[in-house]
Amino acid sequence: MEDQRSTFRHRFLRDRHLYLMLLPVILFYLIFKYAPMIGEVIAFKDYRLGDGIFGSKWVGFKHFESLFGSIDFWRVLRNTLVLNVYSLVFGFPVPIVLALLLHEVRKEWYKRTVQNLLYLPHFISWVVLGGIFIALLSPSTGVVNTILEHVFGMEPIYFMADSRWWPVAYTLSGIWREAGWGTILYLAAMASIDPQLYEAAKMDGASKLRQIWHITLPGIRSTVAILLVLRMGSMLDVGLEQTLILQNQSVLDVADVISTYVYRVGLQNMNYSYTTALGLFQSLISLILVVGVNRLTRAFGERGLW
Amino acid sequence: MSIRNNIQSVWSRVGTTANYTMLGIFSLAALYPLWYVIVSSLSSSRAITAGEVSLWPVEFNTRAYLRLFDDGQLFVSMGNTIVVTLVGTLLNMVLTTLAAYPLSRKRLKGRNYLLMFIIFTMLFTSGVIPNFILVKSLGLMNSYWSLWLPALLSTYNMFVMKSFMEGLPEEIEESAAIDGAGDWRILFQIILPLCKPIMAALSLFYAVSWWNSYFNVLLYITKSSLQTLTLKLYQMILQVNQSLLNSGSGSEGVDQVMLTPEGIKAAAIVIAVTPILIVYPILQKHFVKGVLIGSVKG
């Protein structure tokens, strides 16, 4: 016992500099990650700036009750889910397809050029991309509508102001920014597939498509699984900066999502407690989703996140 | 047999050509929106309004840029963005290193508890409002610390660096330890020089996210003299009434007829993207590496 203690002290003393390095890190996590979690209690209080978090009155589940009873809540929840499902269904396969195409390219310089061009949008701010998209899709001056009008003889489409078209524009803009970047992990997984498998398949006379189906796709299965887990975990998490720049008053019925609603109603109209309740709901569901989907992946024999 | 082989080789050539062509089209599609905005910024307002601009500048002119240069405000905010980006990235790298190095040492007592303490914050993230109240009650409003402190380190990037450090050969470090070098010296003289590629990649990720972010600036920076480039753009894009068009003095009548907000917006966007486009080719070889190390096991 005495011995154990002294080795413990010895080890602590030996590594004291390592602990010293970690001190600011731990402080950072305590203050900027854990303290806001304590701040979540205002979801159960009537928070007023003057009273502070601890001085404000407890109100129990009042805010949750009015939240679940409001039309707004179901609207932003539905929009959040719908936009995420669109991005998942249409956006998730795109990098896989792009990676499959890139994987077949034998000319290195061509591959690298294409990759660099496809990665580029990922590095550009949503503000900039939003501005560009709004300009491109403008019904009066945008090039997309000019083409629709002159080549196809169609009436201009109000992509950004029409509730039927806005989700399309939203989804496409997301794909446009992230699809190329998303290929990196798949390409790496494909590069680690044993080339002998392809050789053997060729000897057996398997076509390119059959090779892709029987060798390449199984080779990236676990990468797909992990990325899918991550994606599912953020089903209630719509890119705030993307949505905020693309949305406008006339499409709020489809474009208002949890995070933008929290921003507008919570911060601009100072309904702090009410929107904290909504934020807490979002955080809890996200937590459940990540843990649940991770379990599910492991149940299917994949590696999962942990 | 030889006919079958021939058919197959023809088909594979067709497939290859189709593949190359498709990828070419996708690359151009990735590039086109940027090209479009550059072209718009150099076109006359009449051409933009008439929807004539698509591939090349129509009625080439640089008035939109001159206007922005004259106004000067955009460059104040660009200066602010540079400050936010440089200091932010530096702070990020210091803290990321201070976290990643000790946590990459397997001998560290309590390491697993510390990792759990950190990973939990990735699984459960608190909402915008509690963070806002925290920053406000710390008195950080209208100071860049309101941007830097809550984002001192990205847990994800920290794990990327940690797994890179774990992959370094242990012998180098052990021999240094035998020579009596302390942890700080080992970190600075042995570990960090070996970490150059990953430090380059992470600095790039941090810097780009500082350069591009606008939501936190929107929340915490209300003084217009402190606003950053992205926030200026955000306001330009959202505001119907362009202050830029009404500000300034002198020969306004002419310019107001000649210039649309569209042209000015396009020029401002081009100015905001240019630095990224300049550093992109220099740094592109690093960031793929960064992503890959991160994916090995975070």
Write structural notes for this entry.
The complex is a heterodimer of chains A (306) and B (298). With 306 residues, chain A is mainly alpha-helical. Chain A has helices at 2-14, 16-39, 52-55, 62-68, 71-91, 93-103, 108-119, 126-136, 143-150, 166-178, 183-191, 195-203, 208-219, 221-233, 240-246, 252-255, 258-268, 272-299; strands spanning 45-46, 57-58. Chain A contains 18 helices and two strands. Chain B contains 16 helices and no strands. Chain B has helices at residues 2-41, 45-49, 63-71, 73-104, 111-123, 128-137, 145-148, 155-166, 170-178, 183-194, 196-212, 215-220, 229-238, 243-246, 252-258, 261-296. Chain B is flat, with a radius of gyration of 26 Å. Helices cover 76% and strands 0% of the residues of chain B. Chain B has one domain (63-296): Orthogonal Bundle (MetI-like fold), CATH 1.10.3720.10. The longest helix of chain B is centred in the first third of the chain and has 40 residues, at 2-41. Residues 240-260 of chain B have low confidence and may be disordered. Chain B is mainly α.
Q: SSE layout and pairings?
A:
The complex is a heterodimer of chains A (306) and B (298).
Chain A: H1 2-14, H2 16-39, E1 45-46, H3 52-55, E2 57-58, H4 62-68, H5 71-91, H6 93-103, H7 108-119, H8 126-136, H9 143-150, H10 166-178, H11 183-191, H12 195-203, H13 208-219, H14 221-233, H15 240-246, H16 252-255, H17 258-268, H18 272-299
Antiparallel strand pairs in A: 1-2
Helix pairs in contact in A: 4-18, 5-10, 6-11, 8-15, 14-18, 17-18
Chain B: H1 2-41, H2 45-49, H3 63-71, H4 73-104, H5 111-123, H6 128-137, H7 145-148, H8 155-166, H9 170-178, H10 183-194, H11 196-212, H12 215-220, H13 229-238, H14 243-246, H15 252-258, H16 261-296
